[in-house]
Amino acid sequence: MKTPKKQITEILSVYQFVFTFLFMGLFFSLLLFFLLFTSFWFLSVLYLVWLYVDWDTPDRGGRRFECFRNWKVWEHFRDYYPIKLVKTAELPPNRNYVLGSHPHGIMCAGTFCNFATESNGFSRQFPGIRPFLAGLAGLFRVPVYRDYIMSSGLCPVSRESLDFVLSGPQLGQAVVILVGGANESLYGVPGEHCLTLLNRKGFVRLALRHGAFLVPVYSFGENEIFTQASFGTGSWQRTLQTAFKKIMGFAPCIFWGRGLLLPWGLLPFPVPITTVVGRPIPVPRRPNPSQAEVDQYHKLYMEAIERLFEEHKESCGVSPSTHLTFV
User: Fold this and answer.
1) Which residues, listed in sequence order, are joined to residue 240 by a DSSP beta bridge?
2) Are strands 97-102 and 173-177 parallel, antiparallel or unpaired?
3) pLDDT digits (tens), the chain, 327 positions
4) C-alpha–C-alpha distance, residues 189 and 85, integer Å
């Protein structure tokens, strides 16, 4: 049983993550603009100079701080749900990896907890492996927020950035890509397991160019931590969501969780999340892979993620009759 103090600490740690995810970028953008018209204008100018000098850092591996990844608040964040990390096979540190993480969900809580923090001991379970969680490139242009997310080891999900990580002399590099991206978040409805994967092949091409082994990853429970309003394909609401996503790069999902004073709010439901890391798929190095090779390894990957789901779904509370669907 958790003490009241522990429960409050966990709730505050989760609120910290949620409000940072939703509002930190907007808050500091507005703050820097506001300060330009006050006696503290020099603070905005100094930061903008720093931003100009530091502009290319995200595409050069970022700037992680291990003290941030080991921050005590992430342990309380982990315990709230709770979030677990399950290892099914070794990842030898004498090569590089491309981990495809599914599903995206609303806020990628399981993926962030397990790969952007050390709260579940990723470095102990996979010694010698250095994870780089890849995020939307536009986030790394947002003042202050970019520095915050880089501290945990995030890097842009762009070719330049990922090529830099995987082409260096140091082995044991692992880029973690939320393959389904913003589109998959639209399918993040409780009880559904729908992956945007049929036409997502860029991560396979990346793995082939560098000879990095592909690793399927699935977070059971990710879609259950929020309730989302789901709109059918072809509806005007889904059309608007899709159009917004094409322009802005992310989908405007309508979601809600639990509240402290009201029956609904932004606090996620405390549903267990289990992130299962599958067996690596050997991939040859092909600097210029053919479409046939990309299709071949994409098919192998789809079979692997489906097999991983089937092997672990019952132990993670998913009905035996439930299966993955792909769009």
Assistant:
1) none
2) parallel
3) 899 999 999 999 999 999 999 999 999 999 999 999 999 999 999 999 999 999 999 999 999 999 999 999 999 999 999 999 999 999 999 999 999 999 999 999 999 999 999 999 999 999 999 999 999 999 999 999 999 999 999 999 999 999 999 999 999 999 999 999 888 988 888 999 999 999 999 999 999 999 999 999 999 999 999 998 877 777 877 788 778 777 777 777 889 999 988 889 999 999 999 999 999 999 999 999 999 999 999 999 999 999 999 999 999 999 999 999 999
4) 22
Residue 280 CA to chain centroid, in angstroms?
A: 19
- Closest by CA to 114, choosing from 131, 90, 102, 93, is 131
Contact 286, 204 (CB under 8 A): no
Q: Which of 224, 277, 223, 221 is nearest to 85 (CA)?
A: 277
Tokens 């502009």 appear where?
A: 55
Other beta carbons within 10 angstroms of residue 88's beta carbon come to 13
pTM attached to this predicted model:
0.93
Sign of torsion, CA 212 213 218 219? negative
CA triple 211-217-220, angle to 5 deg: 175
d(C-alpha 127, C-alpha 118), whole Å:
12
Distance CA 320, CA 37 (A): 61
Rounded distance, CA 284 to CA 271, Å? Answer: 39
Domains: count for the chain? 1
* Nearest Cα residue to 275 out of 82, 15, 133: 82
Range of the domain at 168: 4-326
Residue 322 phi, psi (nearest 5): -85, 135
57 burial type by CB count under 10 A (0-12 exposed, 13-18 middle, 19+ buried)? middle
Q: Which whole-number Å values give the CA distances from 118 to 5, 90, 105, 255, 277, in the listed order?
A: 23, 18, 21, 28, 15
Nearest Cα to 216, choosing from 302, 126, 96, 322? 302
